[in-house]
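Example (one chain per record):
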Amino acid sequence: MQYLKRNLKSIKCLLTVSDKDALNAKERHDLMVINEVYRQQSLLYRAKTHSIPGKIVSIAQPHIRPIARGKARAAFEFGAKISASITEHGMLYIDRMQWEPYNEGEDLPMQAEKYKQRFGRYPASIHADKIYRTRDNRLFCSEHGIRLSGPHLGRPPLKTPENARALRAIRRIERSDEAIRQAIEGGFGRLKRKMTLANVYEKLKATSEVTIMVCFFLANCEKILRDLFVSFLELLELTLEFLKDRANAAPMGILLCQLGWKSC
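Predicted structure:
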């Protein structure tokens, strides 16, 4: 820290006596970031802590923040944090994208309101992770007639002959919700593998955000094209069945005339 302080002081003295264009734009940006890194590290050293708001971990990408994940592979991840949603039709939406760490569990009311803005109504049900199943989110869903997936709060009821059928229905719904959750996780996995969302190597904040949005856009385009192809196959099957029925019901000469063939 002392060597860095000395070097920064020397650079400042040289800049005061040199031409104002001695440094180019990138060098001025890097110098500003290094000064901020020195300020943050000095505060961390004096406070004897390892955490500070807006902590810079990269001089080339000062907008990136460490995000604690607690995973076995890596305790921290670096990159944009995204709150995304998938509708019942399989379309993906980015509801929030931010580089600073935040609690995504607080985004559920905002995401429900955005769903209403897009489709004119609240969703019938929301299938979310455990982090979204807070008391505030449960209260919001109950007030707006939304069913939030997952078990209810409190002790589970004891099984009795009177409530056995109701408990079986609840478990059936929970298994269905879990299956939908797996499909949602699969959609995000496809984004990372096929749409290269896990390999965003752009350095600038703006270009990184554009790349992430393009990944979601391409995933939605693929979904639309897949649905159109399936609809085309279904229409083709119905057309072939119709022609087959007409061929069995009418003489061949009349059928050819109706199709507009010159052999008539």
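Caption: Residues 205-249 form the longest helix (45 residues).
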